[in-house]
Amino acid sequence: MDRIGPGRHVPDSGMNNPGYSIWRLNVTVDQALAPDYVPPSTYADPRLQLVLDQGDPTAHHTWSPDGSRLAYRCSMAQPDGTRRLVVRLKGLMDGSDQVLGEWISDVSTGFMWGPSGDRIVAGNGLGDVWAFHADTPGLRTLLAPARTYKSGKDTITEEARYPRFRPDGGVIGISYYKSVTNKSGTPVYRSPAIMAPTGWPAKALLSSSIVNESIPLGWTP
Q1: What kind and span of H or E run contains 33?
Q2: Whole-angstrom Cα distance, residue 221 to residue 164?
Q3: Distance, CA of 107 to CA of 103 (rounded, Å)
Q4: How many CA atoms lie within 13 A of 78 on its CB side?
Q5: C-alpha 116: how far from its chain's center?
Q6: I need a labelling partner for 109 at 20 to 30 A (CA). Which of 116, 132, 193, 213 fits?
Q7: pLDDT in tens, 162-214
Q8: For the chain, give me the number of helices (H) and strands (E)?
């Protein structure tokens, strides 16, 4: 369930049926927590609203801050029998459903709409962080590309995954990966880190002496 708060409706239950449709559970949090609450047992329950059913497999959906739009990844069938991975945008007010852009790789490491504005950050398995722009279909911004560079005798590789906006949108939290190759070998360092909404550089939040995976990340409210 996303964006649960006192007196609010639950905008999304996360239910897929079976990966082709997305439903919304229209109950308040207070109702869901009540001792006499009975969960829906069939999709015919009037408390369940079909938000999306467009015929192709969907995944990694995220809501706009006001709950009026839904961005999601979709595997679209092509005339030649292949499939094309794209990000689509569903408008709940007008029923529109359009392609925002091509997906960034075959692996997803995060997909989140910012707390304000139209930016949707996405991570991939290559260690890149991108932004899609809901108000500008076709625009895709590379915020933090995986990068390799020299520092003295060291070769350093930095990657970012699982981008998550801070609740005020001023900072992006990431799972930070850094490897340093030199004559002594290639130590690998992973840490939760933060960076500006514009991308690199990242500031690691733990010492390299602490072994961790930091996957996934989450902010307190």
Answers
A1: helix 29-33
A2: 12
A3: 9
A4: 8
A5: 15
A6: 116
A7: 999 999 999 999 999 999 998 888 888 888 999 999 999 999 998 877 766 76
A8: 1, 15
Look at the block and give the residue holding tokens 């999709």.
Answer: 43
Contact in structure between 170 and 197 (CB atoms under 8 Å): yes
Rg for the chain, CA atoms, rounded: 20
pLDDT in tens, 119-133: 999 999 899 999 999
Q: So what's the pLDDT on residue 18?
A: 44
Pairwise CA distance, residues 204 & 70, whole Å: 32
The pLDDT of 88-104, averaged and rounded, is: 93
Q: Which two tokens mark 109?
A: 């490491």
Can you tell me which residue has the tokens 């520092």?
Answer: 151
Neighbours of 149 (CB within 10 A): 9
Tokens linked to 37: 């609450």
Distances (CA, A) of 66 to 11, 52, 115: 10, 17, 9
Q: Are 42 and 25 in contact (CB under 8 A)?
A: no
Burial zone of 113 (CB within 10 Å; 0-12 exposed, 13-18 middle, 19+ buried): buried
Going from the C-alpha of 116 to that of each of 64, 72, 128, 143, the distances in angstroms are 8, 18, 22, 17
